[in-house]
Q: What sequence folds into this?
């Protein structure tokens, strides 16, 4: 029997009982669609988090005050006290390390900003000119903080895009005096729109020179020091140098935690990657169920078509021809189901992206390939037994059945 | 050399604890072009004989020579090939594939034999015309009358130009007039040189054949044309 004929014959017998075929294709497609959509969701979440961290900057080493006993990133570091202040001086010292390209000290607090009778709670970020470069931020109007000695407190402020819009509206903001806390600052720039970064929305902050911010909050310590290594390869060296410098400056005591952005990224990547595998596995169960359904349907089909199988044998079809015809039918049903499921899954992922534009819900290639392969594999695997049963049917008994 | 030569055929079925001898020490020789009716009451072994002749069943002992070749020792694959090329079956219940059209049903043996589509179509068209079914080519079996169905089945049985046609109660599901037509068709094929073996319990139908083989209890009790 020619391959084309086998295919046509199998397609004919599949369409010969439409309801059975439709139900089976549906079951298979739901399985595949589940895998495609759930992995799109899982992988989308992973990419979302990675993007969040990447928008922080690149080749970053972050210095946090306080020693984390266990090492690595620990949220407790953000709230516990520290024996020795992390200072602007530390940041300047780190700047001189050979593997370090630039540093930016950060101090953070909340205050009230007011202009023309309008009052708003804002997050105040005190930093230096390097902050712009390290965070890959863009200035929409005017300029960023002036470079130079941070020791000289100057009364200038750079507004986040949303703050400018809410306080100034259609009015030009550049050159105006804005009151933040007790003092007035001249607006010298407005930031461009940017995304989230470590829970801080740059659109809702005002940026002051670090000394001005420290004076406002009456503190000497910094929230963080951002250190940018000269290259990706220089990150470990920058980390070691940073730690050494700070230790030397802090009476030889290691009272800061230094983490790399890569380490944090890798951790999240790993956690969310495992999560994606997990949901793929759960969705994969539905594929196995669909495979068993293929077997059930094919067994029923063999029983229903006993007379036909007997006839084919009488007409001179050898066992392997009959087996191939049934296997081809199972493969066709699985392949159709898999293709349909793939389309449904991609449609679902597209709908997810429309509903949640920030979530890059694209199914990863490995999941799509695995889902399609599993669908075809289970379809064929579970098709083997019915096909063999059909091939082994006794022709005489098969023919005597009506 | 006879076309069909059975010697010392035994066929035993095991039903539970008891053994049923469907055929016992049967010898039979049929020449090419003969018209033989195998008759007998139900349970006489005539259907078992037909299945053996059609290579759908194997004897427990004895040899079956078809055209001088011992076919009992052939593999299942080789037997399938012999069925495909030398033997045509006509059944009481027609055994048409319900989802296929008349033309597709007739083409089925050629499809199994791997004959190219163009040649298939030409031969099917000719066969349907010969059997007066040209206008029914695209009808499915449930849109055909009983007589038309059996003619489609006969067209299918002869499309591979077999040497031998095995008919099991070919008129059993047809009324008298239609049955008469179908028998005339089969006898016409026999007149053209094809060996025709008809199994029936109907003495009138069996009487039409030139040779009658009477079966009883798994053995041959009478053979009018014993060669």
A:
């Amino acid at each position: 029997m020619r391959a084309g004929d086998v295919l046509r014959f199998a397609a004919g017998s599949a369409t010969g009982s439409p309801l059975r075929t439709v139900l089976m294709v549906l079951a298979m497609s739901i399985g595949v669609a589940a895998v495609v959509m759930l992995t799109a969701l899982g992988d989308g979440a992973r990419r979302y988090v990675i993007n969040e961290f990447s928008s922080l900057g690149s080749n970053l080493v972050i210095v946090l005050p306080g020693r984390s006993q266990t090492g690595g990133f620990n949220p407790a570091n953000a709230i516990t006290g520290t024996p020795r202040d992390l200072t602007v001086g530390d940041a300047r010292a780190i700047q001189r390390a050979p593997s370090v390209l630039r540093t930016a000290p950060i101090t953070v607090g909340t205050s009230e900003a007011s202009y023309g009778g309008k009052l708003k709670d804002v997050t105040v970020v005190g930093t230096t000119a390097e902050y712009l470069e390290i965070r890959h931020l863009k200035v929409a109007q005017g300029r960023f903080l002036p470079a130079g000695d941070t020791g000289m407190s100057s009364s200038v402020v750079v507004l986040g895009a949303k703050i400018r819009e809410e306080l100034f509206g259609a009015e030009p903001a550049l050159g105006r005096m804005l009151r933040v806390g007790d003092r007035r600052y001249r607006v010298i720039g407005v930031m461009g729109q940017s995304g989230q970064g470590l829970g801080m929305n740059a659109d809702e902050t005002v940026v002051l020179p670090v000394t001005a911010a420290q004076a406002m909050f009456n503190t000497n310590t910094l929230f963080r020091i951002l250190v940018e290594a000269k290259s990706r390869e220089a990150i470990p060296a920058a980390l070691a140098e940073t730690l050494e410098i700070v230790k030397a400056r802090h009476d030889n005591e290691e009272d800061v935690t230094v983490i790399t952005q890569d380490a944090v990224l890798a951790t999240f990547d790993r956690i969310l990657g495992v999560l994606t595998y997990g949901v793929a596995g759960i969705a994969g169960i539905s594929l196995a169920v669909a495979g068993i359904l293929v077997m059930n349907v094919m067994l029923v089909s063999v029983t229903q078509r006993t007379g036909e199988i007997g006839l084919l044998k009488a007409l001179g079809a050898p066992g392997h021809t009959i087996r191939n015809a049934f296997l081809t039918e199972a493969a066709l049903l699985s392949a159709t189901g898999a293709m349909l499921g793939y389309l449904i899954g991609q449609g679902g992922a597209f709908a997810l992206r429309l509903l949640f534009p920030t979530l890059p819900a694209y199914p990863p290639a490995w999941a799509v390939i695995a889902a399609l392969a599993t669908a075809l594999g289970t379809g064929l695997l579970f098709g083997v037994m019915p096909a063999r049963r059909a091939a082994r049917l006794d022709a005489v008994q098969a023919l005597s059945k009506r | 050399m006879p076309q069909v030569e059975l010697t010392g055929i035994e066929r035993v079925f095991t039903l539970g604890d008891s053994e049923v001898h469907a055929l016992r020490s049967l010898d039979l020789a049929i020449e090419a072009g003969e018209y033989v009716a195998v008759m007998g009451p139900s349970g006489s072994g005539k259907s078992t004989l037909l299945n053996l002749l059609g290579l759908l069943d194997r004897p427990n002992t004895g040899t079956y020579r078809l055209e001088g070749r011992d076919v009992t020792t052939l593999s299942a694959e080789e037997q399938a090939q012999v069925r495909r090329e030398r033997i045509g079956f006509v059944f009481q219940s027609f055994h048409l594939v319900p989802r296929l059209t008349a033309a597709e049903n007739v083409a089925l043996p050629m499809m199994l034999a791997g004959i190219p589509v163009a040649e298939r179509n030409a031969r099917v068209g000719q066969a349907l015309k010969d059997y007066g079914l040209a206008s029914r080519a695209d009808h499915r079996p449930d849109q055909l009358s009983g007589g038309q169905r059996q003619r489609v089945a006969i067209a299918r049985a002869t499309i591979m130009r077999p040497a031998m046609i095995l008919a099991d109660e070919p008129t059993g599901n047809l009324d008298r007039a239609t049955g008469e037509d179908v028998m005339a068709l089969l006898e016409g094929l026999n007149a053209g040189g094809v060996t025709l073996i008809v199994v029936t319990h109907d003495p009138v139908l069996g009487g039409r054949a030139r040779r009658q083989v009477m079966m009883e209890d798994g053995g041959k009790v009478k053979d009018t044309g014993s060669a």
Remarks:
- The interface with chain A takes residues 51, 54, 56-57, 76-77, 80-85, 87, 89, 91, 93, 95, 97-100, 108-109, 111-114, 156, 160 of chain B (CB under 8 Å).
- Residues 176-191 of chain B form the longest helix (16 residues).
- The CA atoms of residues 214 and 220 of chain B lie 6 Å apart.
